[in-house]
Amino acid sequence: MLNFAIETARQAGNILLEKFDKKIAISKKGEIDLVTEADLASEKFIIDRIKTQHPLHSILAEESGEAVLIGDGKWKWIIDPLDGTTNYAHGYPCFCVTIALEYREEIVVAVTYDPTRDEVFSAEKDGGASLNNKNISVSDTDDIGDALLVTGFPYDISQRENFARHFEKMLLRSRAVRRDGSAAIDLAYVACGRFDGFWEEGLNPWDMAAGVLLVEEAGGRVSYYDGSKFSIYKPPLCASNGRIHNEMLQVLR
User: Fold this and answer.
1) Pairing of strands 58-61, 75-83
2) Residue 124 and residue 30 share a domain
3) Which of 9, 122, 138, 144 has its CB 3.0 to 4.6 Å from that of 220, i.e. a possible disulfide?
4) Domains in the chain, number
5) 62: helix, coil or strand?
6) Cβ proximity of 195 and 214 under 8 Å
């Protein structure tokens, strides 16, 4: 399953690269939420490939909006064909394809592919995480004051009264905070130690599914803002190297 997911993500990423920085059709799903012809082409390719190779598996995809229930529902692919669409539409090279496989409501396979850097982040449940076939682990930063954090701005930011407070406090407590515009890449970077922690509200399952497994298999921790067990179907999310997790939660609570 992992090799299938990697190959599928790579090929979908090539579709994105072929259309990147060229004139493409762009439409709006919401006030500032975009969808491009690249999203749709990538998603169609991934769904067609899953249906061909695993015809009894269910599929939950971003542009389709809901799960296509097939078979007995034990296996479900959760895909985002282009995470970072706004970046992509503006020619900013921070985007990816991200694919996860859920078995009996537990993520067991995860792949996030960044085609601009040719980086494949992958993980299997209880099998560790890797970047281009080399094992990765979270950072060893143990003080939030030394941490490089990352977050994302939800589309409905004006309706989230705590966002500005959280952002300001994280800025004051940490070494620095970044905002890259791709939650899947942010989580992959926590997994490989480039970032020490990540938090965000308003995410969807396809934004987080692969990244959550990557972080956990790389030795990190993922939870809700109160520290309780996390589900990809109900944000908000806090992910970290584990060492600074409680300090992050102190801010987010």
Assistant:
1) parallel
2) yes
3) 138
4) 2
5) coil
6) no
The answer, yes or no, to whether residue 233 has pLDDT greater than 90, is yes
Residue matched to tokens 């969807």: 204
Domain with residue 175: its CATH number is 3.40.190.80
CA distances (Å), origin 32, targets 92, 110, 153, 209 = 16, 28, 12, 23
Range(s) of the domain holding residue 10: 2-135
**pLDDT at res. 164:** 86
- Which amino acid, residue 91? G
Whether residue 36 is found in the same domain as residue 125: yes
Rounded Cα gap, residues 44 and 57, in angstroms: 16
Exposure string (b/e) for 132-163, b if CB count within 10 Å is 16 or more?
A: eeeebebbebeebeebbbbbbebeeeeeeeeb
Asked if residue 190 and residue 90 are part of one domain, the reply reads no
What pLDDT, in 10s, does the model give residues 46-104?
Answer: 999 999 999 989 999 876 655 555 666 799 999 999 999 999 989 999 999 999 999 99
Helix (H, G, I), strand (E, B) or coil at 181: coil
**Residue 122: Cβ within 10 Å count:** 28
